[in-house]
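Quick start: read one record
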Amino acid sequence: MANELGAPAIANLGDLRASGHVQKTLREEIRDNLLTKLAAGEDPWPGLHGFESTVIPQLERALLAGHDVVLLGERGQGKTRLLRTIIGLLDEWTPVISGSELGEHPYEPITVGSQSALAAYGDDLRISWRHRTERYSEKLATPDTSVADLIGDVDPMKVAEGRSLGDPETIHFGLIPRSHRGVVAINELPDLAERIQVAMLNVMEERDIQIRGYVLRLPLDVLVVASANPEDYTNRGRIITPLKDRFGAEIRTHYPAELAAEMAVVRQEAHLVAEVPEPLLEVLARFTRNLRESTAVDQRSGVSARFAIAGAETIAASALRRATVLGEDTAVARVVDLETAVDVLGGKIEFESGEEGREAEILTHLLRTATAETVRAHFRGLDFALLVEAIEEGATVTTGAGVSARDVLAGLPVLGESELYDDVCERLFGSGGGDSDGQRACAIELALEGLFLARKIGKDTDGSETIYG
């Protein structure tokens, strides 16, 4: 039986024993659930892209071995998301002693208070059920993090109530002990002060707690996972060697190796207020990858996946604004909106010191490179001769952030019986695609921009209008 929230209805220790419940250590629980998912062909890591043949197998081996894990990688590589996904390997519900500060298993109380409660109530000991999401704790390491935050400290109020200073019940537990039978994640581990790192040593290896000279033996069952920038972790000496040694696995993360994975991350994470056609997401993904390869960008800082995500959200917002101002029925992002991303995303990139003053120029150049690559990928072999000829004879196409999709299409040169426009839309959106004015205008703009970048036609930008001619 289960209650209305889905948790089992068992409410005391006697009923729990009668149900046949078997206690597992945290590492056994994670190992069994991971093996069950793998045997069933189920993906244990939903929402992660580009790690399938590199990071994921290493992490799975570490968890099967029962190791504490540290992920090393630059910003925006999905380290935190990967750590949070471990939650899915815990049992959905687990029993805990009602009111226990550390969420102890009814079969194995470890604090004085819980042991006293078991001795007093026996099989009538009240139990509660904790969901897997409550068994994951996360802490962003900052220089002001204290031992009390992570490990614990003496609670002066409990001392004032009459308890002696050496009484274990005077201790206020920190994040790691409170994560007993769960996962605790520490982001940016090297930013912890050295004395805090020292305090973690016994917790991770000997599983005891040392607070103000007192040693409290607690068989803590905690999986410690962490993330760090490899520059801080391996080269600058900002993490003490004994703590490094406590982690059983060091796993290097990376940015998506494949373009499709890069696009999948953007598609999954971006919250779009308007339609952003796939070709524009591809341009943004290529743009991000070009930045990661550019010698003008400080690659030690990395170019986060959040760059492309924020870019997609920005051009969607630009499309929504245009649709609202011009009264368009549907807001669809177009090539002209890509420039708005350059205007606002420069602050997300760390440039090399010698590139000061050239930031906008570099971003514009790499965006044009990404656009040209997308055009070549989709329009290779397509004959634009009729369109180029019409423009050479004086025809112009006007677009821009202030020009509606319908006006863009209405201003296209007439090419007789040419099926060029349909071919362009089919190349980008597949058979039957490009059925809205916004999508068709996006396709045409991408073709025109490709012709401009190939120096087949000219382009003049004046305020909110762009004229191809």
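Residues 13-252 form a domain with the Rossmann fold fold (CATH 3.40.50.300).
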